[in-house]
């Protein structure tokens, strides 16, 4: 097999990149180790920055999002018995975020690629990357018992934190930065109406809580928990009681509860790999970086990587701009570290790290300062809606 760009991973970043390149006449083949049903079973983030929604429209996969997504112009921070709404549209020239589940994004991109005849090979086993530092890289994989070689010009590693792409890089060529947080998020999905039309992020002496949603009838809620908690120890009743205890009384009183349809505990970490280009291999999304979910940046950061690589490769094939290939990593990392900073900051001021009363007072002072200052609110707003994508020129 031959193609121009081999894409490893059929999650949203790999599918989005494939769609965008296809619309510029650049051939791609996507390899995915799992089945389509498995890919769609992943429950992930659901807050999309405007930059990502614009990319989905450009990729021809934004129609259902336009119909079913919920545009948000703000969110709430609760602390010390107060609830402060952060307007994200006013200070940012009308920019917004859209609540639309990652599973639905993936489904829409799958459907768009199928409709346009794009090649995606699922259940591709034993994927290996070869000759990354030559002008003839390739990928081998096993499908239905047959070993196949995919020859290509470039490889985009969109296969996540545990994927083969980053593992294929020589250890001496890569540097990693990581912070593992001493807690996790216990989350449930339930067929109940959201307690609020906008997201609520809560700082409480018992720990962090988040009230989110997927639709007008499907809610996603989280509470901070110990990283070694057992999911079986958390009945639905215990979860709802704990969640309500961390919210203002007025919010807790109007919360509708119900049985969970999904329940999980997710650890939190910050992680960045540098650089993001190794010969003809480009790392994209979770293959190169992880953020704690507090600032809703994970999927959106992958989208900004996709945007950068898409423009780099388009200029390479259309204009012969080989020089831009080496700029991918620097351009992507500038935005990545700023998003890492915002996610780290949100995590730091909203979660309980210890019983130290001084640390708790410092968190409250930080929240009070930012919400009482026009400059502070502007800083939160511009980061939450997503910093602008850097132009590839």
Outline the structure in words.
It is a single chain. The chain has a domain at 5-46 and 62-70 and 101-177 and 269-351: FAD/NAD(P)-binding domain. The longest helix has 23 residues, at 328-350. It has 12 helices and 20 strands. It has 393 residues and is α+β, with helices and mostly antiparallel strands. The two termini are 32 Å apart. The radius of gyration is 21 Å and the shape is globular. Helix 1 runs parallel beside helix 5 (102-115) and helix 11 packs across helix 12 (374-385). The strands form 4 sheets. An 8-stranded mixed beta sheet has the order 6-5-14-15-16-13-17-20, sandwiched between helices. The protein is 35% helix and 27% strand.
């Amino acid at each position: 097999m031959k193609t121009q760009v081999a894409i490893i991973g059929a999650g949203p970043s790999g599918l989005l990149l494939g769609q965008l390149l296809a619309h510029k006449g650049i051939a791609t083949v996507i390899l995915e180790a799992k089945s389509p049903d498995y890919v769609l079973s992943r429950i992930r983030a659901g807050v999309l920055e405007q930059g990502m929604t614009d990319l989905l429209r450009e990729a021809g996969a934004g129609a259902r999002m336009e119909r079913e997504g919920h545009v948000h112009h703000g969110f709430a921070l609760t602390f010390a018995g107060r609830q402060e709404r952060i307007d994200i549209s006013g200070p940012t020239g009308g920019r917004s975020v859209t609540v639309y589940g990652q599973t639905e994004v993936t489904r829409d991109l799958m459907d768009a690629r199928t409709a346009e005849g794009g090649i995606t090979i699922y259940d591709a086993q034993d994927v290996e990357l070869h000759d990354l530092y030559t002008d003839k890289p390739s990928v081998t994989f096993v499908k239905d018992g047959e070993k196949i070689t995919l020859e290509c010009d470039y490889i985009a590693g969109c296969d996540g934190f545990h994927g083969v792409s980053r593992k294929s890089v020589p250890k001496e060529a890569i540097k990693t930065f990581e912070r593992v947080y001493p807690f996790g998020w216990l989350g449930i999905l339930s067929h109940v109406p959201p307690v609020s039309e906008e997201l609520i992020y809560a700082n409480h002496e018992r720990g962090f809580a988040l009230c989110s949603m997927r639709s007008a009838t499907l809610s996603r809620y989280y509470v901070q928990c110990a990283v070694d908690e057992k999911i079986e120890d958390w009945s639905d009743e215990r979860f709802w009681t704990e969640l309500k205890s961390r919210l203002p009384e007025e919010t807790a009183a109007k919360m509708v509860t119900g049985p969970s349809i999904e329940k999980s505990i997710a650890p939190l970490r910050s992680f960045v790999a540098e650089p993001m280009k190794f010969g003809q291999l480009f790392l994209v999304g979770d293959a190169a970086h992880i953020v704690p979910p507090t600032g809703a940046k994970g999927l959106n950061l992958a989208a900004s990587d996709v945007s950068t690589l898409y423009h780099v490769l388009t200029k390479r094939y259309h204009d012969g701009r080989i020089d831009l290939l080496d700029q991918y990593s620097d351009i992507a990392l500038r935005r990545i570290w700023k998003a890492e900073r915002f996610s780290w900051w949100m995590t730091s001021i909203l979660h309980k790290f210890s019983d130290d009363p001084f640390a708790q007072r410092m968190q409250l002072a930080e929240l009070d300062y930012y919400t009482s200052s026009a400059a502070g609110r502007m800083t939160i707003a511009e980061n939450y809606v997503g910093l602008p994508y850097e132009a590839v020129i």
